[in-house]
Amino acid sequence: MRRLDLNFGRDLSIENQLYIWSKLILEEPAIIGKMYCNPCRIDNNPTCPLSVYKGSVCLVDFSGVSNKSLFMYEAICQICELETYDEFYSLVIKTLEDGEKDIECNTSSEYTVERKSMAVQPTRNQKGNIVYGRNIIDYYSTYGISVEDLYKSKAYPVWYYTIEDRIYEVQKDLCVVLKLQDAFKIYYPLRSENKWFSNTTKDNYWYFKGTDTLVITTSHKDALVVHINTGYSVYAPVSEKVHYTTEQLNLIRSHKRIISLGDGDSAGESFNEYNRSIFKCEVIDISLYSDNINSFGKKTKDISEIYRYDKQLCLNLLNDK
């Protein structure tokens, strides 16, 4: 194994850094965003958040006592009374080996697709519970989507995420991570560009189980709006340029009734026609309403924006079928 640079931990994955912090420094689970006492000084008040700075996990301490960030090397040497870097290095490697960790991995490899590795840290409180910010709650409530709906559909608030070897801190942006099968989609709904980052493939999809009627639609948000307001089962591929696998075809055909609901544009029309050619299914055509503008300044080209334009019109379109 090559000799790693462990001064700041950057040659280790975030996952492995958190493991070292939990075993050798904090002596409790290490959670990004949680407040801890500084173990390297007299401290009985947990006010120091565990954070990530340029790929390194650190404890941010601006109490006025130390007024700096505490990194792994300094913390372990002080707590374990080590005098040399070699002692520190050997202890870290042994701890990882004892925990059967993949030491060579410099990013999370749990969700790897086509050489792009992505790892996500949901926003959590001091007890480790996932916490949705007011901006996320307010935004999704305009679609009739609750925190419980988001959680059940595996849509989580984001503290930070990594893509390959880079760390991205979300800060104040409205951002959620959408989990599907073995992949993630990072979603910034209020951005006009660079709204999506993902490691998804054509094999990924959302499926919310309901009645024997299945609606095939085109996004996580549309799928929730349909499912919440009708109780129907909903299937949504990650892209309108869909190509169904055998597993996906079997899942869709297991329902007694199938309806296609694409967007009200040319891509949505192609989506509906493709589904009709395969499943001989019904179609909800919303193209007549695609040029309306709702009170949020959005064109009503998809069912979720129609919901924000006129909830009753949305319900009529869904339930008339």
Q: What is the number of strand segments?
A: 16
Task: Indicate the proportion of strand residues.
Answer: 15-25%
Mean pLDDT: 84
Q: Can you tell me the number of structural domains?
A: 3
What is the CATH third-level topology name of the largest domain? Dna Topoisomerase Vi A Subunit, Chain: A, domain 2
Largest sheet: 7 strands, antiparallel
Shape: elongated
Query: How many angstroms separate the termini?
Result: 62 Å
Radius of gyration: 24 Å
Question: Could you list the spans in which at least 5 consecutive residues all have pLDDT below 50?
Answer: 104-116
Task: Work out the helix count.
Answer: 10
Oligomer classification: single chain
Task: State the share of residues found in helices, binned by percent.
Answer: 25-40%
How does the helix and strand content classify structurally?
A: alpha+beta
CATH architecture of the largest domain: 3-Layer(aba) Sandwich
N to C succession of SSEs: HEEEEHHEEHHEEEEEEEHEHEHEHH
